[in-house]
Structure formats: C-alpha cells, structure tokens
Design goal:
Elongation Factor Tu (Ef-tu), domain 3; seven-stranded antiparallel sheet
Length: about 625
C-alpha cells in the first residue's frame, strides 16, 4: 500500500492549486477486466493532461505490455506496478489528480480482483462518488455487487453505472437497458442518492469525454460532463465540531496546545468544548497554525488548539461542543469488512484504531453475514476474507464515536491483529449498545487485601497449556494437592470439567475455543480477587487467547506453564483414544492433527516431559511459586 499512499499524497499536494474550482473525489470499481484503468487513462488522454514524456513512456510500455495491438494501451497510465502490467489487472490503489476548466478531481483506481477487495475499500473510504464499471458482455457480476455494497456501507452516495465495452455488444440499446434494469433491482435497498447510467467504450472514447455517434439512442451526459456538474459538496463543515487529538503540543512550560485535524464542523476562539470521554469542559482561546493564528478553522484543517483551562487531555481524546456530544460507550454494533487471511474469531482480542486512539476490542457476537449476491442476512459463526457482516463489539474502555451514517470520520475504525500487527478489518459503527450504560462496579465491604490476609499468601493463576495427552491435568492435580497440604487456598479449573457446565454450549471450532478460554480467564480472575491460587488446565491452542487471559491480571499474578510434550509422545500415550479417532478423520478440529497448536514464546515455566516425571514437574511449579514470592 506504500505506493498508493505516496500517490495519494502527491495528488493531495497538487489539489489546492485548483481548489477554487471545487474538488471531486471519486473511485472506479467493478469486476476484473471491466476497464477501470483504461477509463481513467482515457479521461486523462482526452483531456490532454498527459505530459509529453509520459506519453512517450506510454508508447514504449504499450509496445511492451499492451493488449490493444498497435493502439496506445491507456490502462498502463495507472497500472504502475510491474506485476499489474504483466497480469493485466490492478492490484494496488492508484490515485491520480487531474483538472478541467470546471473542476478538479482526485480519482482512485481500485482493484477488481476479489483477492484485493480490502484495497478497494481503502479507495472508497473517502470518495464522494463511485464509477461502477460493468462489462456489457458479462452484465452484473458478484464482484460488481460486492463493490456496490461496500460503497454503500462506506457512505458513497452517488454512483455512475458505466456500462463499458458497449462497442463489443454492437452498441445495442437493449443490452444497456437490461443491465441498467438488473443493477437498479439489486441496488434498490442500498440507499444511493443518485445512480446515473452511461453506455461507453473506454478504449475508443465513446461517451467518456465526448458524445458518441454510435449511441444515438442515449440522451444523457458523457461521463466527464456528469463528473463536472454533479453536486456532491461535502457537508462536513455543517456537522457538529469533532476534533480527534493527535498530539499534545508542549514545546515549553508556557505553551500547551492540542494538535490534530478537524474531522467535522468549525471552531472559533471562545467556543466552548468538552472532552467527550471525561466530560471536562473548557473554551478555545487560540487556533494556532504555522502561518499564524486563525479566527476560524473548518473540517479538514490541521491546527493546534489552546484552551482556557488546564484540562487532562491525551492523544486519542475527542473534543466536541458540550451541546452536541458524540456517544461514549464500550459496546456498539458495527458493519465489518473482514480483510484478514485468517478468519474472524468472535471473542479473540484485537486492537481497534478509532480516530487517533488505539484500544483493545473483542467481537462479542457476529449477528449475521451478508450474501453480496442477494443482500440476504445469513447466520454465521465467523467471517472469512472479503466477507461482510454485522457484529457487536466490546472495547476495553469506553470510546467516543458517532454513527458512521452521521459522520464518516468519527464512525469508522480498523481492527489490527495484535500478534502480526496486520490490519484485518474495516468497520463502520451503526449504533451504540446501551445495555450496560447503567451498570457500574459495586464497591465491596471485604476487599481483595482482606482476602489475601485471611489466606496468608498471594493469589496467582497457573495456566497449564499443551497438547491433549501432554500431562497437563495430571501435573495440575499434583500441584494442587501439594499446595493444599501446605495450607494454600486453591481451586482447579480443568478443561474437560468446565465443559460439563459453564461451557457446555461450546464446541471445538476455533471460535468456540476462543470463547472457552475467555470465559475461563474471567472466572480465574474472580478467584484471584478472592485470594485463591487457581490452576487452569486447558489446551488453549492459540497464543492470542493466552495473551488475552494474561492481560486480565496484574504483573506477577499469571504463570504460563507449558507442558512441552511432543505430538509423537502424546499419540503414543493417547489416554482417551482421541488421537486414533482424529487420525481416522472421526474427530474434526482436533489440536495437533487437524487444528494447530501455537506453543508459548515466553512461558514462565517449561516442563519438558517425559524427561520429567509428573511428580518432578509438580515440584518445579511449587519451586517457581516460592521463588517468585507467591507462597
């Protein structure tokens, strides 16, 4: 994506020179080989916006990579990656700036291949209009529907339905009319403010910048005429003031300002503001920029605000008017586009970036996923790459937001895999969930310190992990008996036992394994608060979930004990006969056979069996607790 970011930055740098004409951001999207790159190339070429050296390079590239015979292959103007040119498809998002006498444009050429749907969503996230291309020979395809639905979710309200390659359908009006009818029937519920169909041939220029003599039956505008005239003026300035704090600017003891880019609305010195999360209020005293103070700042401007009072504000806070505040909640419903190669697992901890803030988050419920062909809502337990669903999410602490329909800047977020740091999802908040709005923590008359004094030792969680048959339960049982004999208050949570009650509703899919560990982690935390040493014996195959449990506890309270037994030794033991059934295909999702096990990377204790007997392993755990001062 780096190349796309550079191109977008260059486009944005050129845009101010033509700002007085008005700026339209649009994207081209659709299925593979529908002609998106060729269309943008045609717009640039016919508008005489290609420099001589670029034209010369295009001629050379057309001879080398072109697919149009002796003619210029205009798609190569934007298919900049070598892999794209060789394959004839767009992979990355290519941004281009161009201007006509009437308007300035930033266009994003987005990939059509399903594999790169995540890149298409990036291009749509800040577009005012989408040009959906459809090959006249193929009609409305699944990827056409997927891209249209994503555009709708991402707040694109104006659409051009570009029925391309009409020349290959003999400029037949009936073909055009049928495609338009099919598309309108599909898009009826997507909420687009306008859909403008245009028959065109991007390769030959029909109805792109000039009217075509081949379509006398078409009386509408050319594509360029429509782009120059459509009214999509952003109403960001008319929305309530929103200012995500990017940086606390304190160059010396005499200056303290808050820097960031205004997401929406306007602000002036003297305006009252509130920190959305804390409710603390103040007033703006100055709007500081590199070029001097401003009397007013509007959406899109990067500024530093100084306030009249010493208010506790940090990076990630959201400033707003006291009379028109965003929602603040730790649970909300959101539409989610899944971009990860690994599927979404409800219950697994991810990292959310919303505005300038990062906060741990879990998808608590996947309410449904969307069939992009029919827009039907389907029951699902997970989302795979490029699938779209409606989810409930829970954050570790409350966040400030608006619904995405009200404000694209403060209602959007991304999900990040906490292990790989890869972006795995893009979300649009639908509404806050107020179920927990009136639930507060009850103050207890007996404190945790009281429990510890009565127990006479410090609490801890011993988390035994390893393959089935590794000896976890045997060792954990021995450890508990040895602790009990020393007068230590203990409780053992065993993976098999909790599935008879607490977790009897869970299976063994990846999503169910995540929820299994999450529930047990919360129960273990309660035992620790009661002053107990709790022993948990669970396969818990995924590092992400073990880390999620670790983060529930204070430093020094969680001990990950890896019972390191090879798969071959576990199969040889096979105390329950499970490996034999799994190897015969009779048990699905069996860890070590048909489902992965991720060994700990930083366990507090590693017990290598069968080199250690169960009794020796148990003594090693006791010794470690003593060494760390827990007993």
């Amino acid at each position: 994506m780096d190349g796309a970011l550079i191109e977008e930055t260059q486009a944005q740098t050129e845009a101010p020179a033509a700002a007085q004409k008005g700026l339209l951001r649009f994207l081209t999207c659709g299925s593979v080989d529908d002609g998106k790159s060729t269309l943008i190339g045609r717009l640039l070429y016919d508008s005489k916006l290609i420099l001589d050296d670029h034209l010369a390079a295009l001629e050379r590239d057309s001879a080398r990579h072109g697919t149009t015979g002796e003619e210029l292959d205009l798609a190569l103007l934007v298919d900049g990656l070598e892999a794209e040119r060789q394959q004839g498809i767009t992979i990355d998002v290519a941004y281009r700036f161009f201007t006509t006498d009437k308007r300035a444009f930033i266009v994003a050429d987005t990939p059509g291949h399903e594999q790169y749907t995540r890149n298409m969503a990036t291009g749509a996230s800040n577009a005012d209009l989408a040009v959906i291309l459809i090959d006249a020979r193929k009609g409305v395809l699944t990827q056409t529907r997927r891209h249209s639905y994503i555009c709708s979710l991402l707040g694109v309200r104006h659409l051009v339905l570009a029925v391309n390659k009409i020349d290959l359908a003999d400029y037949d009006q009936a073909v055009f009319d049928q495609i338009v009818a099919d598309y309108r029937a599909f898009a009826e519920t997507l909420g687009f403010a306008s859909i403008t169909p245009v028959p065109m041939s991007a390769r030959h220029g029909d109805n792109v910048t000039t009217r075509s003599a081949h379509t006398p039956w078409y009386a509408g505008p050319t594509l360029l005429e429509h782009l120059e005239s459509i009214d999509v003026e952003s109403d960001a300035a008319a929305r309530p003031f929103r200012f995500p704090v990017q940086w606390v600017n304190r160059p010396n003891l005499d200056f303290r300002g808050f820097s960031g880019t205004i997401a929406s609305g306007t602000v002036r010195p003297g305006d009252r503001i509130v920190v959305a999360a804390s409710g603390r209020q103040s007033a703006v005293t100055r709007i500081v920029t590199y070029d001097g103070d401003l009397a007013e700042a509007r959406a899109g401007q990067a500024v530093t605000l100084t306030l009249a009072d010493e208010v506790d504000i940090a990076r990630g806070d959201l400033l707003a008017p006291p009379t028109d505040r965003p929602e603040v909640a730790d649970q909300f419903a959101a539409h989610l586009i899944w971009m990860g190669d690994e599927p979404l697992l409800p219950g697994r901890p991810y990292l959310m970036r919303i505005g300038t803030r990062y906060v741990p988050v879990r998808v608590t419920t996947l309410k449904h996923k969307v069939d992009v062909d029919t827009l039907d809502h389907l029951a699902a337990r997970t989302l795979s790459l490029n699938e779209i669903g409606l989810c409930n999410l829970s954050t570790a602490s409350p966040v400030a937001f608006d619904s995405y329909a009200d404000n694209r800047e403060t209602g959007a977020f991304i999900l990040i895999d906490r292990y790989t740091n890869a972006t795995v999802g893009a979300g649009m908040i639908a509404f806050g969930l107020r179920r927990a709005a009136n639930i507060h923590r009850q103050a207890m008359l007996v404190s945790r310190a009281d429990h510890e004094r009565m127990a006479g030792h410090k609490p801890a969680t011993l988390w035994f992990t390893g393959l089935s048959g590794s000896g976890k339960s045997t060792i954990a049982n021995l450890v508990e008996r040895k602790l009990h004999e020393r007068g230590v208050r203990t409780f053992l949570l065993d993976g098999d036992n909790v599935r008879h009650g607490l977790n009897r509703d869970l299976g063994f899919s990846d999503a169910d394994r995540v929820e299994n560990v999450r529930r047990v982690g919360e129960v273990a935390r309660l035992f620790v608060e009661a002053g107990v040493v709790v022993l948990c014996s669970f396969i818990s195959p995924f590092r992400a979930e073990r880390r999620m449990v670790r983060e529930l506890f204070a430093e020094g309270e969680f001990f990950e004990v890896f019972v390191d037994t090879t798969l071959e030794d576990c199969i040889a033991r096979d105390p329950k006969g499970l490996y034999g059934k799994a190897l015969d295909g009779k048990i699905a999702n069996f860890t070590g056979v048909s489902s992965p096990y991720e060994p700990p990377e930083h366990a507090e204790l590693i017990l290598a069996t069968p080199a250690l007997s169960p009794d020796q392993a148990a003594d090693a755990v006791i010794d470690e607790l003593e060494r760390r001062g827990r007993i």
